[in-house]
Structure formats: structure tokens, C-alpha cells
Amino acid sequence: MFMWLKHYMPRSLYGRAALILVLPVVAVQLVVSFLFIRNHLEDVTTQMTFNAVSAIEVAMQRVAEAESEAQAQALAAPTLSVFGMSLEFPGPGAVPAQDLIGWDDFSGSVVRRVIRLYRPETLAVLLLDNKEIEVFLPSKFGPAEISFNRRRVTVTAPHQLIVTMVFFGLLMTVIAFLYLRNQLRPITRLARAAQAFGRGRVVPYTPAGATEVRAAGGAFLDMRARIERQIEQRTQMLSGVSHDLRTPLTRMKLGLAMIDEDEAEPLLRDVDEMQRLLDAFLDFSRGVAEGEPEEVDPGALVEQAVEDARRGGRAVTLAAMQGEGTVMLRPLSMRRAVENLLGNAVRYGTQARVSVILTDKSLRIRVEDDGPGIPADRREEAVKPFTRLDPARNQNLGGGVGLGLAIVNDVARAHGGVLRLSQSEDLGGLCADIVIAR
């Protein structure tokens, strides 16, 4: 039932921590302020106003016993002077038509309510800006005006408690947030290190912070070291096997060169095929290990790859180049990925089209062809190493070893991105997108 709140919740850890700190403080202050106003300020104002009304009632009784205005003022003076009140008879024209009180004056509203509760005949109640209260009452000498200072019926500074509470609430919130920031900083450092490693970069990281954060940081370092060892071992193994096989292949070529050309031609084709497979193994073994990430203009990189493909006689066109800027990439690995996509596109189709879109959040390199494409139910399988989908493409043009899309997928994932396969809307063949977050 509270799912709609997720759209308004902060996304960052600091934002949520600030919300956790501020929300309880604000809630407590609101509750305390409400209870203070309702249960303390109102009760005190009511009691003080009741005392003032009692004095007014005694004074009006003296006025009723007097024979003249002067005598009425003299008889009421002893009672009114105790409360700092004064009595005047301003005449009928001086009585306001209605009460005068501010819309935000809570204690003033209480004063007016109590006065009218105990003196229903009151003509008007005025709470002036100079902190004076004027009460108009009927008498046998005409309207009687009793004025007194507001401090007689209201608290002098009712806001002091609220101001003090808000000040110390803000102070404690700042102190708590500074302390909490020190606890969150190791978590954010761990997140940055993990994100960088996911994008193919290794940044210095030392576990720090609370025990649980240190444990998570140590586990991340162990995992990173284990993955790096596995990548290094795979690279060394495949490179060693491929390199060692080159020597016997070279000897086989030399031996076949001394045999009759007609008899040696089929064997030479087999040797060339083995050589091509070894080259594919080497490309796969190198993977993304070539070079360190650096600031690269993806548009220039793709444009150079397209120009090289055109010089090789391939029908490749550069369709769109949107956005400018640089992205942290391994240029050799990314270039190999683009070349693999271009090679597959012209191998299984007659033309290829390349586009690059660079935004503030992502980089997308798209390669489309007009070939048979890959069925939707086999696209996930197509990016696995040593998977051949020639029956779905076009086996008559020559079978592959099944590493082309696997290399592209490894390169995309090493840069913190993904390889997406779909059907080209314009050309009808395969549409391969390398999408990398910036």
C-alpha cells in the first residue's frame, strides 16, 4: 500500500541517511510543539485571562454602584490598579463594529474566547499592535473601555521553548549527520571500487569503517584478486597452447610445400583453417587484457574501424554519429569488438551499417546487417564461447569457431556494459548493440 512512496524516496545512501535523521527530529518537534501549545500555553493563557475577567467583573460592579463617571472611575480604580488596568468612557461612537485580532494569534484567540465566555455582554475585544488589550463593555454611563497590557493575560515569550527546541534539534542533527557520514564513507568507497572493477578498472581500496564494512571490503578484495588470477591463468593457458601449436603448423606448411601441388592443396586448406582457429583462440585469450582504460573518443575509434573495413573491400557504412566527448575505454579491446561485429555482419550479409550515440549517461555502438539474423530464442546462447549458430546464419559462407560474439560480450562486460542482440528494423538482419554506462 506504500509502494507509491518509493517514487519520492532519495536514491543515494546519504539522502536516505539524512531522511532517517531529519524525519524523526521533525516529527518529535511537531508533536512536542502541538502538545505544548494545546496543553500548556492554552491552559496558562486561560487561567491568566480568567483572573483578568474576575478583576473586570469586580470593577464593573463598582461602576454599577456609582452615580457618575468620575465616581465610577474612582470606585473601580483600586481593583483595576492591581492588574495594571484603566477605565474610560469613550462614548458610543468609539466602539468598534467587530473584534480586532490577528489570524495567526493563537493566545489572542484564547483571550477573546475566555472573555466572551464569562462576559457574554462584551461589545468588542481589541488586541492592538502595541501589546495593549481593550475590552468594551456596556454600562449605565454608556460603553466602558477597560485597557491593560497583554502580558497580564498571555505568556511573555511563548516561542522561546519552540525556538530552543528547534535550535538544539538542528544542532544534534548536524552532529549526528557528520558522525554518520564518517560511517557511510567506507561504504561509498567500497561501492566505487566495486563499480570501477566491474568496468574493467582497478582502483586502490583499503577496507575501513565498522567491522561489517571491513569484512565486506576484505571479501571484495579477495574476490577481485581471485578473478584477476583466473583471467591471468586463462590468458596464459590459451596463449601458451596457441603459441606452441604454431611451430608444428609451420613445419607442416613447409612439408606440404614440397609435395605435389594438387595433393597438397586440400591439406594446406586444413592447415590454414587450423591457423585461423588459433588466431581466434589468441584473440579470445587476450580478451580485455590489452592496455589500461583511458579517455577515448568512441566516434573516432569506430570511424577508424569502418575506414579499415572499407579498405578491406567490405560494404560498411557509417550511419550516425550523435554526441561528443570521451569515455574511459580500452581502445584495443573495444576496437577488436567492433571489428568482430563488422566481420560477422559482412560475412553473413551483404552490407553493414554502424552508428554511435553518446549521451551523458551511456555510450551505444550499433552494428546492423541484412543477413538472416539470429532467432530470439538462441541469442542468449550465441554469446557463449565456442557456440556455433551457422545453421541459423549461413554455413555455406564458412563456419566459425564460435568466439566472435563471445569476445564482444567479454569486452562489453569488462567495460561495465552489455551486448544486446535484436533484429534490425531497417536492414532486417542482426542488430548488435554495445551499451556502456558512463
From TrEMBL:
E.C. numbers = 2.7.13.3
Q: Which ranges carry the Histidine kinase domain? A: 240-438
Reactions catalysed = ATP + protein L-histidine = ADP + protein N-phospho-L-histidine
Q: Does the keyword Transcription apply?
A: no
Q: What class of enzyme is it?
A: transferase
Q: Which Pfam families does the record match to this protein?
A: HAMP (PF00672), HATPase_c (PF02518), HisKA (PF00512)
Is Oxidoreductase tagged as a keyword? no
For this protein, the record's SMART domains field holds: HAMP, HATPase_c, HisKA
Identify the GO cellular component terms for this protein.
Answer: plasma membrane
InterPro entries, per the entry: 2C_sensor_his_kinase, HAMP_dom, HATPase_C_sf, HATPase_dom, His_kinase_dom, HisK_dim/P_dom, HisK_dim/P_sf, Sig_transdc_His_kin-like_C
Name recorded for this polypeptide: histidine kinase
**What GO terms are given for molecular function?**
ATP binding; phosphorelay sensor kinase activity
Q: Which residues form the HAMP domain?
A: 181-232
- Organism of this sequence: Pseudooceanicola lipolyticus
